[in-house]
Every structure is written in structure tokens, then in C-alpha cells.
Design brief:
Helices cover 71% and strands 4% of the residues. Helix 2 packs across helix 6 (151-182). The longest helix is centred in the middle third of the chain and has 32 residues, at 106-137. The protein is mainly alpha-helical. The N and C termini lie far apart (52 Å). The protein has helices spanning 2-14, 30-55, 63-92, 96-101, 106-137, 151-182, 194-218, 220-226; strands at residues 140-144, 147-150. It has one domain (28-226). It is built from eight helices and two strands, in the order H-H-H-H-H-E-E-H-H-H.
């Protein structure tokens, strides 16, 4: 019965039939301001992730775009992790405004940490590939049940898990996020802190753009044929232990 109730609550919020009432506080906006920053960051991440998925249709030809967009994803992913983490801390430490706003449905509370973990994992392994370069990325790290695992395999595996959990998360959060950023509050109150939220978004995008430009230059080995090189090359043996 509990699982049915959790599923029902999640579907109701995902469809926009139910929503949490976020209190508004002076200066920063409190939970309502936090929800707006989280929603805007989430929508930015969604747009970038869609572009990143499109690059997979022709990874050989779009490898530079794949790298740049992957790097662009890192700063907003960290911001979204920070905003959701702030809300979680506020709720579980008993801060009255966040307790009043309440938690998300239980299934989303279970799914949320997985989304954060595998988002950071897929981005982290992607950055590791840039740092290692094509050759070292194909070096065997460990052998599990006879299967040789290298850095590329780790990136691919974390991507598959990320795609599943993030897809479910997007289904549940897209409508509420769109409602937050497009619909005025029912109580008619304006949410303070808009300039600060805009500044955070602007700084995040500038940092992302600079990081993308810098790391694209550092990933020339991948851009200049690194993906094709090694398609049929034997794996390097694992280093002796």
C-alpha cells in the first residue's frame, strides 16, 4: 500500500495536479527562491543534455561538440546539486520554512541521490577521459568476471545508468519546473532575490563557457582522430600488481 501511495503522490506532482507551497522569505526568497533557481538550472541542464545526446548520433564527426557540451554541463550540475542539497539540509535540520514547504514525494527522494551521484559520475569520468587522452583511456584498469574495464568503459557504464535515472527524474520534474518559471504564485507574492538568482545563472554560464573553451584545447588528441584511433587496436595489458 505504501508503494502505491508513493507512486500516486509522484504521478500527481509530476502531472502538476499537486504542488508544494514554498514559503517566501525576505532578501533571498527562501524556499520559493531556492525552487526557482533549482528549476532554471534544471531546465538549462535538460537543454544541454539533449544536445549532448544528439552528439552521440555521430560521435566521430561531433566529438568536439560532445566534449564542449560535456564540460558546459559541469558548472550547472554543481549549482543544481548545491541548491537541492541546501533544501535537503534545511528540511532535515528542522528549519521552519523548509519544513513548512515539505519534502518531495518519497520515490523522488529515493531517486534524487541517484541522479546526483550518476550525473557527477558521468561528468567526472568524461573529464577523466580528457585528462588521460585516447591511449591511456584504453588501458585496462581492472578485470571483472573476465571483462576488462578501462576508463572509456566506466564512462559508458555510468552514462547508461545516468540515462535511466535522469530520464525518470525528468519525467517527474519537468512539468513542476516549467510551472515554477512560467506561472505567477497563487498568493500573488513576488519572490525576492531575483537579481541574485540571475547573477548565479550568468556566472554559471560564463564559467561553463570558459571551461569549455579551455578543455577543448586540452582535448586535441581526441578531436584530432583520437576516437577513431584504437577502434580496432588491442587493449594495453593491465600493469603488473
Amino acid at each position: 500500500m505504501k508503494l502505491q501511495q508513493w507512486a500516486s503522490d509522484t504521478i500527481a506532482e509530476a502531472a502538476g495536479r499537486e504542488s508544494r507551497s514554498d514559503p517566501v522569505l525576505p532578501r533571498t526568497g527562501g524556499p520559493a527562491g531556492n525552487a526557482r533557481l533549482t528549476a532554471w538550472t534544471g531546465l538549462l541542464l535538460l537543454a544541454l543534455f539533449v544536445v549532448e545526446l544528439v552528439t552521440l548520433l555521430n560521435l566521430d564527426g561531433l566529438i568536439s561538440w560532445h566534449i564542449v557540451v560535456g564540460v558546459l554541463l559541469v558548472p550547472p550540475a554543481l549549482v543544481k546539486t548545491a541548491t537541492t542539497g541546501w533544501r535537503i539540509i534545511g528540511y532535515y535540520t528542522g528549519r521552519a520554512p523548509y519544513r513548512q514547504a515539505g519534502p518531495p514525494p518519497m520515490l523522488l527522494r529515493v531517486l534524487g541521490p541517484l541522479v546526483v551521484l550518476f550525473t557527477l559520475a558521468v561528468l567526472g569520468t568524461g573529464l577523466a577521459l580528457i585528462a588521460l587522452g585516447p591511449d591511456s583511456s584504453r588501458s585496462v584498469l581492472v578485470t571483472v568476471l573476465g571483462q576488462q574495464i578501462d576508463a572509456i568503459s566506466l564512462h559508458q557504464a555510468t552514462f547508461i545508468v545516468w540515462a535511466v535515472v535522469t530520464g525518470l527524474h525528468c519525467l517527474a520534474r519537468l512539468v513542476p519546473a516549467m510551472r515554477i518559471v512560467t506561472t505567477p504564485r497563487e498568493d500573488g507574492n513576488r519572490v525576492p532575490g531575483r537579481p541574485s538568482r540571475a547573477a548565479v545563472m550568468l556566472i554559471t554560464m560564463v564559467v561553463a563557457a570558459v571551461a569549455g573553451a579551455v578543455l577543448l584545447g586540452a582535448s586535441s588528441a581526441w578531436v584530432n582522430g583520437g576516437l577513431q584511433h584504437g577502434h580496432h587496436a588491442p587493449r594495453r595489458p593491465a600493469p603488473p600488481s
